[in-house]
Amino acid sequence: MEKLYEGKAKILYPTEDPDVLLTIFKDDATAFNAQKKGQIQGKGAINCAISAALFRWLETLGIPTHYLDCPQNDQMLVKAVDIIPLEVVVRNIAAGSLCKQTGLKEGLVLGNPLVEFYLKDDALGDPLLTWERALLLGVTDEAGLQTLKDLALNINQHLQRFFAQCDITLVDFKLEFGGDRQGRIILADEISPDTCRLWDNTQTDPQARVLDKDRFRRDLGEIESAYQTVEKRVLSQIERL
Ligand code: C5P
User: Fold this and answer.
1) pTM higher than the cut 0.95
2) 68 φ, ψ to 5°?
3) CATH number for the domain including 210?
4) Which of 4, 199, 213, 215 fits 12 for a cystine, CB–CB 3.0-4.6 Å?
């Protein structure tokens, strides 16, 4: 099958139905705009399973997503959408680039969740945008930007509560959205330890508590077992709901 698109963590293939695409989740891991490359054994299947479970659950709460089905453990059938070239980041606790760029101390609990828009453009290094710059670039209009912000905050409320029930703190995460054939904005991409910062509430040590891609970014080791822990807790919490 001819690839439609290959990203750092996923490959997209067309299907016989023009409204449906097949996503293959890869074990490849990259960080720092692909300057650091590696593999996380079993990551593709784990991220696919976590994303599928969360997408299915969010749908039941009225959040539209691109999820359709998982025909294999590292494969997801999704609705074809026109991806909006923005990375929508929601932060509950200061970490990562927020600390680097502002000097805020890692771990500071933010009074209100912070929503940020980054331009999806590898060549430019995915720059942080202001609201006005996003409008200037024409990636979406004012109403579209507001819808993205509202959806991101709504999803954050649901996910924060869900992860808390898994004994995990949702520090921050990145979402991507697309426009479907009906012109609706729907949640796309994935929600996984690659795209979220997740801290284990059962650990107090700041390195031991890291259950996400920061283990790879910061060479903390035990990456596979961290991803497996998230998968186990998410899937068993989904079963309890
Ligand atoms: O690096 P930064 O602190 O801005 O990342 C914020 C959140 O967005 C983190 O959870 C990170 O995993 C996620 N992210 C992502 N893909 C990117 C940039 C950030 O999933 N290209």
Assistant:
1) yes
2) -120, -50
3) 3.30.470.20
4) 4
Structurally, how many domains does the chain consist of?
2
**CATH code of the domain covering residue 43:** 3.30.200.20
Structure ipTM: 0.99
Distance 118 CA to ligand 1 centre (A): 10
- What the block records as the tokens of 200 is 């284990």
Mean residue pLDDT of the chain comes to 98
pLDDT, one tens digit per residue, over 27-79 is 999 999 999 999 999 999 999 999 999 999 999 999 999 999 999 999 999 99
Distance of CA 34 from the midpoint of ligand 1 (Å): 13
Do residues 94 and 48 both lie within one domain?
no
62 is written with which tokens? 């009225």
Between helix 142-165 and helix 43-60 the angle, nearest 10°, is 110
User: Which residues, 6+ apart, have CB-to-CB distance to 111 below 8 Å?
Assistant: none
Which structural domain, as residue segments, surrounds residue 58? 5-79
Q: Which of 79, 112, 135 is the last residue of a domain?
A: 79
Which residues contact ligand 1 via a Cβ below 6 A?
Answer: 87, 89, 95-98, 126, 172-174, 195-197, 213
Confirm whether 230 is domain-assigned. no
Name which of 39, 17, 20, 1 is nearest 194 in CA terms: 39
* Alpha-carbon span 37 to 78, nearest angstrom: 27
Q: Are residues 72 and 116 in the same domain?
A: no
Per DSSP, the three-state class of 153 is helix
Best residue among 25, 50, 89 to mutate for probing ligand 1's pocket (most ligand atoms within 8 Å of CB) is 89
